[in-house]
Amino acid sequence: THFGYRDVPVAEKQKLVAEVFTSVAGNYDLMNDLMSFGIHRLWKRHFAAISGLRRGDRVLDLAGGTGDIAALLLPLVGSDGEIVIGDINAAMLRVGRDRLTDRGLVQGLRYAQMNAEALPFPDRSFDAVTIAFGLRNVTDKQRALEEMHRVLKIGGKALILEFSAVRQEWLKPLYDFHSFKILPRLGRLFAQDGDSYQYLAESIRKHPDQETLKQMLQQAGFARVEVRNLTAGIVAIHRGYRV
Ligand code: SAM
């Protein structure tokens, strides 16, 4: 089933289109695009590009429901590697799996419903654990970081892509205006859901900033922790190793 998007049979395609408009994942996509002017696609590509994953690696992609990250990482780990997509929400997992399958991405992918705070894997199971735009939603973040550390093999790494704190003073008022004035309106307009977008902007402000998250990673046992800002710190990538 290595068909591309254009070759999908009509019935399938209708199902696909219907899904895009009705599903949670469709809403997430819209949300992400509105929120970031589509830049989240670049952030994700960059995240994959600097992941340093190698052929044969076994990766856990947490909060991976949309499948976006897995699709980018799969070519890196190759056919002898494996990516386990974990998400707390069964509907998100289903939509993600349908999408990846429709793109012909099947081999090397596994799906499992799980809470990032209590991972259903033995110690030292993975070469890397990734979580993109997911940690923010986890209630006990410290616990999740400890779990990520626990399931990593020695020498393995955690990679976190998440909204962070804007580093450029001049950008802050614009960013706040976009988040608190424009975004909820767009949310109401396109998703009949202004409140979720308001919540989203607030959850980003509440999320630990670059330095705080770095310390939380160290607290969880990670070594050689590094942060890289993307787009003036609107988003940051944290990396830490289990040694
Ligand atoms: N990683 C994907 C991406 O970048 O497109 C999806 C990000 S989406 C904004 C956040 C995801 O986190 C949702 O699919 C949600 O179900 C999941 N999630 C929220 N809390 C979680 C938890 N405690 N454990 C695992 N997944 C969780």
UniProtKB/TrEMBL annotation:
Top-level taxon: Bacteria
Binding site for S-adenosyl-L-methionine: 66, 87, 115-116
The protein's annotated pathway: Cofactor biosynthesis; ubiquinone biosynthesis; Quinol/quinone metabolism; menaquinone biosynthesis; menaquinol from 1,4-dihydroxy-2-naphthoate: step 2/2
Coiled-coil segments on the chain, per record: none
GO molecular function, one term: 2-methoxy-6-polyprenyl-1,4-benzoquinol methyltransferase activity
EC number: 2.1.1.163, 2.1.1.201
Alphabetized UniProt keyword annotations: Menaquinone biosynthesis, Methyltransferase, S-adenosyl-L-methionine, Transferase, Ubiquinone biosynthesis
Catalytic activity field: a 2-methoxy-6-(all-trans-polyprenyl)benzene-1,4-diol + S-adenosyl-L-methionine = a 5-methoxy-2-methyl-3-(all-trans-polyprenyl)benzene-1,4-diol + S-adenosyl-L-homocysteine + H(+); a 2-demethylmenaquinol + S-adenosyl-L-methionine = a menaquinol + S-adenosyl-L-homocysteine + H(+)
Signal peptide extent: none
One example of a Gene Ontology biological process annotation: aerobic respiration
Role, per record: Methyltransferase required for the conversion of demethylmenaquinol (DMKH2) to menaquinol (MKH2) and the conversion of 2-polyprenyl-6-methoxy-1,4-benzoquinol (DDMQH2) to 2-polyprenyl-3-methyl-6-methoxy-1,4-benzoquinol (DMQH2).
Name of this chain's protein: Ubiquinone/menaquinone biosynthesis C-methyltransferase UbiE
Organism: Tahibacter aquaticus
Gene: ubiE
